[in-house]
Design brief:
Length: about 210
Amino acid sequence: MQPIDQSVFEGGHLLPLVEDFYTIQGEGFHAGKPAYFIRLGGCDVGCRWCDAKYTWNPKLYPPVAVSTIVERAASCTAKAIVITGGEPLLYPLGVLTEMLHEQGLEIFLETSGTHPFSGKFDWVCLSPKRQQPPLDEAFRMAHELKVIVETEADFDWAERNAAQVGAECMLYLQPEWSVAEEMMPAIVEYVKAHPRWNISIQTHKYMHIP
């Protein structure tokens, strides 16, 4: 991904919105919770199995006024907001989170932790990737560590990341969707043997919702 010209975002008053929609959170600790999703464009991590590759190029998504994004979010019956991407921490999120909090909304962040934090969040889900590991501050900020498991070698990767988060951080192993049936037995046995871990399943794909 080419470097992003941050000047076009006016200090976070504009953001490259891919889509925003009301759905049910499908993964991790908050699975099953109604939530309004705000998906931002741009990602420099590049997971080969990403199910949102359409978000990677931020130039496809002209900057949208944060006030417009917040107005739509606040008009929804959802009380929880998920900020996701792409990689949302590519952008200054202070204006967005402040305005959402002024509306009395909870804010959950989904991030790979590869860029410095901005904004204030009620919950941070950190999903670390081997090709571009998280910054140290991401481990300190994480309420939830969600590691994608594609092969059994990922269990060791998961433990290395778990060793860096806080003691209260929730730990989740989530099978990569294309190999979920193949990997689930190994994940089940691993979690049974290491009970501080939990299993996350992409329940939204079973519900056939975004």
